[in-house]
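for the writeup, i need someone to sanity check this before i put it in the appendix. the sequnce is what the collaborator sent (i think, or maybe the updated version? ugh). structure was predicted straight from it, no edits. if anything looks off just tell me and ill rerun, i have time this weekend
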Amino acid sequence: MTNYIINVNTKQLTLFLLLGGIAAAINFSTRIFLNHWMSFSASVFFAYLVGMAAAYFLFKIFVFKNNQKLKRASFFYFTLVNLLGIAQTWVVSMALAYYILPIFGVSSGVSEAAHIIGIAVPAFTSYFGHKYWSFK
C-alpha cells in the first residue's frame, strides 16, 4: 500500500489564507463597485481578475518567496491555476444567487452571500496549485 503525503506548511498555509482573505476582500469590494455598471455575472468575473492580481503580488512577496526564482512564467502558471478558481467562484456564485438561495426563500443580500461563498470555494485548491505549480 502506497502512502501519499501532501507537504503542508501550516505557517505558510495560514499566511496564504490570511492574505487570500485580503485579496478576497478586494475581489468582493470590486464586485460591489462594478455591479453599479454591469450585471452581477460580469461583475463577479471582472472582480475576480482584480482580486487575482492582488493575490498574485501578495503571495509572491509574502507567502511563496522562498519557493521561486521570480520567473515571468510564475504569473502564467498562477493564471492557469486561477482559471479553475474563477470557474469555481463563478459557478457557485451564479448557482447560489439564481437558484439555491431563492429556493430557500432568501431574498435579502443574495448577491453578497452568493459571492462571498463563491470566493471562498477555491481557497484550498488554489493553495496547492500555487504551491506546487505557480511558485515552485
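The chain is about 75% helix and 0% strand. Helices lie at 10-34, 40-63, 73-103, 110-120, 123-134.
thx in advance!!
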